[in-house]
Write a structure and sequence with these properties.
Length: 188
Amino acid sequence: MDKSPTYLSDASPSGSIGSISSATEAINDFANLSLEDQERQREEWRTELQRVEEEINTLRTVLSSKIYHSTELKRKLGVTVWKEIQADVSSGIKNMRDTNVYHKTESVLKTTAEKTTSLFSGFSTKINQMKNSESFKTFEGKVGGAYESVKTKVSTSRSGSVQSFHDVLDSNSNTAATTPIHEEKQVI
């Protein structure tokens, strides 16, 4: 049987530990290593960290170069930041419209609009029916007649007498209550 020490980085190719139990095992394994093996493991980690950081820097350089090249191509094609934003917004709206939540919301809004429209339509119909009723026409005639009577008395009282508006209104309220006055409507 081979008794060579197993290092923590040997557990997975990327050196990452997937779960809490495996992390606990790794800590226990490291603690069970001899001081010499622990130092060897640390040195291996340092070497691996240096290699990973170099790869990251290389990827950053390549990515930066690719971004610059992409920007130049977009500039040559006339693709502006504004056009990209518009495309992103259009795509986002399309994606949103494809979702189930959008369809449910749209359905609720349509139903609400239909109910509101029918409510106001019914209300408007009731108002028109009320306007066409005999009692409303009688009331409208009395109010219109009283208004015309007061207006006539105030305008004639200004021409010669010193009668106030309230006096005219009081004297007219007695007249309007007892006799209906029909109003002649002017066409404007």
